[in-house]
Amino acid sequence: MFEIPKEIEKELEEKGGWESIKQKLLAKDIKKMEKIIKAIADERRLRILYALSKQKMCVCMLVDLMDCSYSKCSYHISKLKEAGLIKANKKENFIVYSLTSFGRRIIKDFERSL
């Protein structure tokens, strides 16, 4: 093993040891966190996320807001959906986008920290 501060050593003992901590750092959890962080690290996607915190929107509204093509906007929407931050609901001939509960929590946390 290696030498660590007594304070950390005591914490590790309470948590089942260093090997137990390492096993809890699951690769799939890290990949999920990475996907979320990458999704919100892009300014355009963050703008979409923030806009959807104010109002549900169809893609044409998001295209206008982002001043980009439908295909570019759809790409950013798909990344946010993959990260579990937004959802889509079909309403008649439209797809309406809104935040998931997780997406709302992310925005609330950001707003509190500003």
What does this structure look like?
The chain is an alpha+beta fold. It has a single domain, classed as Winged helix-like DNA-binding domain superfamily/Winged helix DNA-binding domain (Arc Repressor Mutant, subunit A, Orthogonal Bundle). It is 68% helix and 12% strand. The chain has 7 helices and 3 strands; from the N terminus they run ααααβααββα. It has a 3-stranded antiparallel β-sheet with strand order 1-3-2. α4 crosses α6. It is elongated.
Q: Which helices and strands, and how do they pair?
A:
Layout: H1 6-14, H2 18-24, H3 27-41, H4 43-54, E1 57-58, H5 59-66, H6 70-82, E2 86-91, E3 94-99, H7 101-113
Antiparallel strand pairs: 1-3, 2-3
Termini gap: 42 Å
Kindly report the average pLDDT value.
Answer: 92
Number of helices: 7
* Percent in helix: 55-70%
Supply Rg.
Answer: 20 Å
Instruction: Please give the CATH class.
Output: Mainly Alpha
Unreliable segments (pLDDT under 50, ≥5 consecutive)? none
**What is the fold-level CATH name, i.e. the topology?**
Arc Repressor Mutant, subunit A
Shape: elongated
At the fourth CATH level, what is the homologous superfamily?
Answer: Winged helix-like DNA-binding domain superfamily/Winged helix DNA-binding domain
Number of domains: 1
How does the major sheet shape up? Answer: 3 strands, antiparallel
Question: How many beta-strand runs?
Answer: 3
The assigned structural class equals alpha+beta
How are the strands of the largest sheet arranged? 1-3-2
